[in-house]
Design brief:
11 helices, mainly alpha, two-stranded antiparallel sheet, disordered N terminus, disordered C terminus, globular
């Protein structure tokens, strides 16, 4: 072979091959269903373990009100532990599932608290003007007013965190990647309403009211970018029903309420044993809230940080 001729041939150098980015597990479309099922499986497993452990630890003489507290702690632990595990599996920051820690109990939470108590007050005032709701006198006095006000507020913040994360946190984030945001919101909101049918005293109209409220929570998620507004609204709405206005909350009447209030009139106006969430007025108030929120809060640009490849279409983080 002629070495001179061969040395004159142009040197062929192949461009370096960029390695494919590592796909986080369960990140593709096929991972949506598996991620959702895995989360639910872990939720029920942790709930079963936690409930069994607490059943042995709780004294039989414990008051029902404290048993309710313990139950809510079991629920929130069962919702959050699988969320943290899924964040590790999917290599995502936990905050993209709706509760970024930098926004914890910040401005959006307190704005949600304000919206919740104002909206419920509008509802109760409308029922009072219609003559179907009466405030009555005080049921508590002295230090007991402050004690139960604080107790129920803390309790319902825990409830809000649990229910919002379970139904509009990991599940909403994950299913939205496959179904889209609003189809997922519809499915989960009506599931939220159906869950309320398990409450003693609840009925189908009340469950529908809860579903509509759930859809409003989804609107706040879509517009603010996270769940902190919804958690605050959820907590103050439940607190207002249970303690401040002392009416049934989705069919449940709790001890330690402020007033001896009562309803009179047709069930479609009062909500009956279900409470205000089964009244026709709740649908009017929620419609007004949705319109006002629509104009006051524009959709935020949602960015999911720290992912390779680029972000999935839906993420909730400020």
């Amino acid at each position: 072979m002629d070495e001179t001729a061969s040395s004159e041939l142009p040197l062929q150098i192949s461009p370096p091959v960029e390695p494919d980015p590592v796909q986080p597990p369960l990140s593709g479309p096929s991972g949506v269903g598996w991620g959702f099922l895995l989360y639910l499986l872990m939720f029920f497993m942790v709930l079963a373990i936690t409930s069994t452990a607490l059943r042995f630890l709780m004294p039989e003489t414990m008051a029902q009100i404290w048993k309710s507290v313990v139950g809510e702690v079991a629920f929130i632990v069962s919702a959050f532990i699988p969320g943290f595990i899924m964040a590790r599996i999917e290599r995502r920051p936990f905050g993209v599932y709706g509760l970024p820690k930098q926004s914890a109990f910040g401005r959006m939470f307190w704005m949600g608290m304000l919206w919740g108590i104002v909206a419920l007050t509008m509802l109760m005032v409308a029922m009072r003007v219609a003559g179907v709701f009466h405030f009555g006198g005080l049921s508590l006095s002295g230090f007991r007013i402050l004690k139960f006000a604080v107790f129920w507020m803390i309790f319902f913040v825990v409830v809000g965190l649990f229910e919002e994360f379970l139904l509009r946190g990991y599940t909403q984030f994950t299913l939205s990647r496959g179904l889209g945001f609003w189809p997922t919101a519809l499915i989960l909101s009506f599931a939220f309403g159906a869950i309320h049918l398990g409450n003693q005293g609840e009925d189908k109209v009340g469950a529908l009211g809860a579903a509509i409220i759930g859809l409003f929570f989804c609107l706040t998620l879509q517009r603010t970018g996270n769940l902190w507004f919804a958690v605050g609204l959820h907590a103050s709405w439940d607190w207002g029903e249970t303690f401040l206005y002392s009416v049934p909350n989705s069919g449940l009447v709790a001890p330690g309420h402020l007033l001896n209030s009562w309803f009179e009139g047709p069930k479609w106006l009062t909500g009956g044993s279900v409470g205000p969430e089964a009244s026709i007025f709740v649908f009017i108030v929620m419609a007004l809230m949705a319109v006002l929120f629509h104009f006051l809060y524009k959709p935020v640009k949602r960015v999911e940080a720290g992912l390779t490849p680029p972000a999935t279409p839906v993420a909730y983080q400020e």
